[in-house]
Amino acid sequence: xxxxxxxxxxxxxxxxxxxxxxxxxxxxxxxxxxxxxxxxxxxxxxxxxxxxxxxxxxxxxxxxxxxxxxxxxxxxxxxxxxxxxxxxxxxxxxxxxxxxxxxxxxxxxxxxxxxxxxxxxxxxxxxxxxxxxxxxxxxxxxxxxxxxxxxxxxxxxxxxxxxxxxxxxxxxx
Length: 173
Description:
Blueprint: H1 2-27, H2 29-47, H3 49-59, H4 63-66, H5 69-78, H6 95-103, H7 121-133, H8 138-172
Helix pairs in contact: 6-8
């Protein structure tokens, strides 16, 4: 009988902790996310969707910008998962590499711009909790996370592009 009571208490405690976590999000990060999403949508509205599209098309022309600037713009403005739509500006043979670069960037941007991938914010917050416990700056962590992410997406984009082109040539034979 005691085991059933202990199980019931633990079961309810799990939901109470979940509720506390939700309230922490509602009073903490959620208002920030809403304001950031509103700001990004306002920027797009002010600048104009056509200009954003032109900038994306321009960024897709060069190997460096295709795997750095384009994914950064896509993830910042469109957020995850809509950011993959910027692939429409990339030539067909470069689309797998664009996707690889973009999907690899949805986490590194989260520390500076949590609106970009709000669903995975807990990953960054878990890392940041360790930094906070050491009384170090989470701002520096976010910047480093972002910069390393840019280097990684460039490398992944170039490598995936070369593999894709090689496989396409092989398949054409």
